[in-house]
Write a structure and sequence with these properties.
669 residues; alpha/beta; 25 helices; 20 strands; Rev_trsase/Diguanyl_cyclase; EAL_sf; EAL domain-containing protein; PAS
Length: 669
């Protein structure tokens, strides 16, 4: 790719390097860009430095920039290492934009340096002309005629005395001698122009420079940089003003286009996250105090299925369709629709008295997207899930506001599609507390603050001990396993729990103090762990605990995952008893009992407390397949009696004994 880049670039530019040296130089720059694309988070600065480096090599024309963008745009995206994810595509596009920005900035500096050097040369030539008129006039005429910058000699009365050909190109006509220079200045720049001329005539500095606009012959405006200085006669008295005019129109257009591209998504043309965040800050400040604003964070449901089955090109067309439909739906409101990353979009609505409520807006969006779009003869329709923040405080940080919307979106997508969830501050405070505890758990575990407790599993009918459940215990939280599951710590901690439990069970068994079934509940992460079987095998081998004395309880919700079902079957084949947690006693849950080797099921606490007869209608069917039923969370004698009457077999809960450490547990049996 570097050789191709060198060949194409060298065909339109001339640099002070041999072909081999240019190959090596561009190869080094390509390595720097590839290294930047691999880093997370992505930093476009190396791309910008490449653009500046190219200018330093003498790479100063637009054809060369176009060749560079073409080679890198196609070449980097074609590399296997960057074609695997859309995230790399976004990074490549952003990197090339940064390269172009670096190129434009460096080129602008180079042009400014050249202009300043030329201006000083012209000033020197003009001053020399005062000492040697004939020689200086010849030099000045040569420089002025060959310059691409407009040059005007203006009398002290402000009238044009002479202008070169370039000024005619800038203005679209050649100004006649005697024309007042102020007449060429656009109205919006007249104040700046007059202040500049006042400073020049006051001889505050050698020359003065200001950006302004001039009026073209066709009535349009030219963006220019005007540099003015005094010319003196043979007696050293001011005689004229030398005005040099640099045409900034093309540079301004290029910078404007690059700025637009940096703030908009390439695929859909929508504002990107950066533009959305900046706009959000402005909107929050000007929001109507009564109606406020509403922020939607949208995510396409099952978009991955479209891309995986029909390809990325179809996925891109679907994203473009969604962008158009979202803009159409929100066209009646004062709103901005943006594309964030992948299949995520954002909407900020400045509410008024006529703005529909959130439910109506979401219903309109999903109803509109439900109309199929045909791509390659495939009729596609999608739905969106959304997290919504309604009427936030005007003082909230935009980044924090987007975090709130994202949290609400994750909650909306939890086990469902096409739904929306409103952000609630209280839930966020609880979630933040949980996250804070989750991140300090490794230290607490290392210091011994997390231990193992045991609670009895009783036979409902007789109250006798049927088994023992081992649980993690931490004084700071009663959801220790759930928090560890969020960070992945549950994998090593869960293996440690099994080892401690199995060792304690063997100790009690060998001393003749307790010989019972020991159970451990697995989290979603543990149940789908590819190494679960090997972890259990290692613990059993190290402790000598019989397989048949160990019960592992999996959440019923993981059974649809292939790894979890395979783990369950393999462990059951080795003699480990398998139980299902959160068993809802519904037909879907019941179907698993006929397909998998399940020994028992555990009814969740919410069903236990409700004691709803409709929830237990299938208990006989569970017994028919040889599976016993354990109810979790029995807290009162009334609950125990009710579940005994409806046919449940086992129970866990405060009514039969709370979790205790190993020593206290034996005392309470």
């Amino acid at each position: 790719m570097a050789r191709k880049w060198s060949y194409l670039v060298s065909s339109v530019i001339v640099v002070a390097l041999s072909r081999d040296e240019l190959d090596a130089e561009l190869g080094a720059q390509l390595d720097a860009m590839c290294a930047a694309l691999h880093k997370e988070p992505f930093d476009p600065a190396p791309f910008e430095e490449v653009g500046e480096r190219l200018v330093a090599l003498g790479y100063v024309n637009e054809p060369g920039l176009r060749r560079t963008v073409d080679v890198l745009g196609k070449g980097l995206l074609a590399l296997e290492e960057f074609s695997a994810t859309e995230q790399h595509t976004v990074h490549v596009v952003g990197g090339i934009g940064a390269l172009a920005c670096g190129f434009v900035s460096a080129r602008a500096r180079a042009i400014l340096d050249q202009q300043e050097s030329m201006q000083r040369s012209l000033l020197k030539a003009a001053h020399d002309a005062q000492r040697d008129q004939r020689q200086s006039e010849a030099k000045f005429a040569g420089l002025a005629s060959s310059s691409t910058n407009g040059i005007l000699i203006v009398g002290l009365d402000g009238r044009v005395a002479w202008g070169n050909d370039a000024i005619g190109d800038i203005l679209g006509h050649q100004p006649e001698p005697g024309t007042r220079l102020a007449e060429l200045v656009a109205p919006q720049s007249i104040v700046v122009f007059r202040e500049l001329m006042e400073r020049v005539l006051a001889e505050r500095d050698e020359f003065q420079r200001e950006r302004m606009q001039l009026v073209r012959g066709d009535g349009e405006f030219s963006r220019v940089t005007l540099t003015a200085s005094l010319l003196r006669d043979d007696d050293g008295k001011p005689s004229h003003v030398l005005a040099m005019i640099d045409d900034d129109t093309e540079l301004a257009l290029l910078q404007g286009e690059l700025r637009r591209q940096s703030l908009h998504d390439v695929l859909t043309g929508l504002p990107n996250r950066q533009f959305f965040t900046t706009h959000l800050e402005t909107v929050l400040r000007r929001a109507d105090p009564e109606f406020g604003v509403t922020v939607f964070h949208l995510d396409l449901d099952a978009f991955g299925l479209v891309c995986n089955s029909l390809g990325g090109r179809v996925g891109d067309q679907l994203l473009q369709h969604v962008a158009r439909r979202l803009r159409a739906v929100m066209s009646r409101e004062q709103a901005m629709v943006a594309r964030f990353d992948g299949d995520e979009f954002g909407i900020i609505v400045e509410n008024t008295a006529t703005t529909p409520d959130i439910a109506t807006t979401m219903a309109s969006i999903n109803a509109d997207l439900a109309e199929p779009i045909f791509v390659d003869d495939h009729g596609l329709a999608v739905s969106v899930s959304a997290g919504v923040v309604d009427r936030p405080s005007p003082d909230v940080d935009p980044t924090e506001l987007l975090r709130m919307a994202d949290l609400a979106l994750r909650q909306a997508k939890k086990d469902q599609r096409g739904q929306w969830q409103l952000f609630h501050g209280n839930q966020d405070m609880e979630r933040r507390r949980d996250h804070a505890l989750a991140v300090v758990m490794p230290g607490a575990w290392e210091q011994g603050d997390i231990g193992v407790c045991y609670q009895p599993v009783r036979v409902l009918a007789t109250g006798e001990l049927a088994g023992v459940e081992a649980v993690l215990h931490w004084d700071l939280s009663d959801r220790c396993a759930e928090l560890a599951d969020q960070t992945g710590l549950i994998l090593p901690m869960g293996e440690w729990l099994m080892r401690i439990t199995a060792g304690q069970a063997q100790w009690w068994r060998q001393r003749g103090e307790l010989d019972a079934q020991f159970g451990i509940r697995l989290t979603h992460h543990q149940s789908t762990d590819a190494d679960l079987v090997s972890r259990v095998a290692k613990v059993v081998e190290e402790t000598g605990m019989p397989h048949e004395r160990l019960t592992l309880c999996m959440p019923v919700g993981v059974l649809g995952v292939a790894d979890a079902a395979e783990n369950l079957s393999t462990l059951a084949a080795r003699g480990v008893r398998i139980a299902l947690e959160d068993f809802g006693l519904g037909p879907r849950d019941l179907a698993w009992l006929s397909e998998l080797p399940i020994a028992s099921v555990c009814v969740p606490k919410d069903l236990t407390r409700r004691m709803d007869p409709r929830s237990v209608a299938l208990i006989p069917a569970v017994h028919e397949v040889g599976v016993n039923i354990c109810v979790d969370g029995i807290e009162t004698a009334e609950q125990a009696a009710w579940w005994t009457q409806v046919g449940a077999d086992l129970a866990i809960g405060a009514h039969f004994g709370s979790p205790l450490d190993a020593g206290d547990f034996l005392k309470e049996l």
